[in-house]
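Please, does this match?
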Amino acid sequence: MIRLALRVAEADAELVLAELLELAPSGVEERRLEDGAIEYAVYGAAGELPSLPALQAAAGGRLVEITTTDVADDWDQQWKAFHKPVRIENGGRALRVRPPWEARVAGQDEADLVIDPGQAFGTGAHATTRLCLELLLALDPADSCVDIGCGSGVLAIAATKLGWLDVLALDYEAESVEATLTNAAANEVTLRAQHFDLRSGNAAPGAELVLANLLLPLLVELSAVGFAAPEPQTVIASGLLVEQADEVSESFAAKHGLVEADRRISGEWAALLLVRGS
């Protein structure tokens, strides 16, 4: 078995990951290195791994280093060690996101989410996801919620567990739609998931709450295409570097009357709570 790793600067990590998942949709391991760089790794036999030219193209000039190493036969167990439960708290509420091999903590007053990290990107461990979950915990649930760019369904499933009644998860990737439905079944919650191409120019489905953990270009695109009825009363936007947050905040305020009510920061990443102005 071979471990193939890409080492990239943190500022370029999300862009490289988005392209890498096109080549390895079954999952990517993520590690933060001591020098602040990010390492992404995939496992497989030599003939199953993406080729070097494909990886260089995916990195788009942002590549720092590619390495390949042989791994022991128990690599799958070692891989599991990188995925630990994540607990998020805010406003007196809490939730815990865990992989299937980690047991639920008995007696804890928290929402419990089981997410398979091998299905698609998004386990709750990344800062952008954690920030979204923090903001989500502070909201009072209402009738409808749309998660645009659902990945493995973490945010959509969390919204359902926290009391949102009609939850729709959207993603361009078929693997993400399938992973969201699989993870929803594992969590014994009911939601809808379907394909949606934000770059099609069509308005995004509307809801009282819109969750958008996307890269900056897609958030700008979402602001441009807008929403079908009902217009959202609240948007949680993440996937942003700190220096990009003002641009997104100002765009949604100017085009949709959604003004910034809260901003959360973790390291280089930011998330925004945008609410409809009176």
Notes: The domain at 86-276 is CATH 3.40.50.150 (Rossmann fold). The helical segments are 13-23, 52-59, 75-80, 127-137, 154-161, 174-186, 216-225, 245-256.
